[in-house]
From TrEMBL:
Metal-binding in keyword set: no
The UniProt record lists the keyword Translocase: no
Gene: 106080361
Species the sequence originates in: Stomoxys calcitrans
Taxonomic lineage: Eukaryota, Metazoa, Ecdysozoa, Arthropoda, Hexapoda
Gene Ontology molecular functions: serine-type endopeptidase activity
Residue ranges constituting the Peptidase S1 domain according to the UniProt record: 35-281
Family classification: Belongs to the peptidase S1 family. CLIP subfamily.
Protein name, per record: Peptidase S1 domain-containing protein
Signal peptide: 1-22
GO biological process: proteolysis
Length: 293
């Protein structure tokens, strides 16, 4: 049941385990850890069907935001009770109809060895200055904390005004279209991208970009597309280049055309980090869950 909608903000995430009491922390789990090769139970692990699919549990912060079981949007877990996503995802339609699922990989198989967890929306917060292609960010507070584990964890957030270099390798995930006019993906996609400099992006898109937007372009035949709005754009934390620890630099927001070799627009998380922190504090939620250590 949706308790309230506030046009004020979104959020951030990282390293904790919550018990059944909202916001309570039992033990820390490091944010942003990518499970390269997937999460195995015993001697078995589910394998992707093709190279554009992720491994089971590879990106444990990825959250499915669905409407009546269909692909709608994507988010990222930044706290056991908080999902970071695009503002458009909570403003399109009735937020009461949204279900939030963490730990989901295959949308068809019902008996994965580590099950997904589903929650309802308690509250949504969007940025008060959000408009078309600007400050497209929101926080979803769920009705009950997710229980963190091998396939469910938070993503780290970069510090305020962190600048990501051009050409950096990034990943995004989601269940959106696998080609411009194709159907959505059964299994979570692994989308490979590179960041693009601002001038090139503006020239390619023929748009003036708001300061809250950064750009990335798909590579190796992958791209974010319809159904992937709100998905986290993540890159490895440069201070620890040998570890598979990532932070979220962007939120999938808009594009001219997917799979056309054109860059897309992503909400700059570092630029809006102060706003995220403020919303977390205002709602009595710990920020340490998304701070890299």
């Amino acid at each position: 049941m949706l308790k309230s909608i506030t046009f004020l903000g979104l959020t951030v995430l990282c390293l904790l385990v919550a018990n059944t009491h909202a916001g309570a922390v039992v033990a820390p789990i490091k944010c942003g850890k990518r499970n390269v090769g997937g999460v195995a139970v015993g001697a078995s692990v589910e394998r992707p069907l093709h190279v554009a699919e992720s491994e089971f549990g590879e990106f444990p912060w990825t959250v499915d935001i669905n409407k009546e079981g269909t692909v709608f949007c994507v988010g990222s877990l930044i706290h056991p009770k908080v999902v970071l996503t695009a503002g458009q995802c909570v403003l399109r339609g009735d937020a009461n109809s949204l279900k939030i699922r963490a730990g989901l990989w295959d949308r068809v198989v019902k008996n994965e060895h580590l099950p997904y967890q589903e929650r309802s929306v308690e509250k949504t917060i969007t940025h008060p200055a959000m408009h078309e292609r600007s400050k497209d960010i929101a926080l979803i507070i769920v009705n009950e904390p997710f229980t963190l584990g091998p396939h469910i964890n938070t993503i780290c957030l970069p510090p305020l005004n962190h600048v990501t270099a051009d050409g950096i390798l990034c990943y995004a995930t989601g269940w959106g279209n696998t080609a411009l006019l194709s159907s959505t993906s059964q299994r979570m996609k692994r989308i490979i991208l590179n960041t693009v400099d601002r001038t090139t992006c503006q020239n390619n898109l023929q748009l003036h970009l708001d300061r809250s937007v950064l750009c990335a372009v798909g590579r190796n035949g992958t791209d974010t597309c319809s159904g992937d709005s709100g998905a986290a754009l993540v890159t490895r934390i440069a201070s620890n280049p040998t570890a598979e620890v990532y932070h979220q630099i962007g939120i999938t927001s808009f594009g001219a055309s997917c799979f056309a070799g054109l860059p897309g627009g992503y909400t700059d998380v570092a630029y809006l980090r102060e706003w995220i922190d403020y919303q977390m504090e205002a709602n009595g939620l710990e920020k340490s869950s998304y701070e890299a250590v």
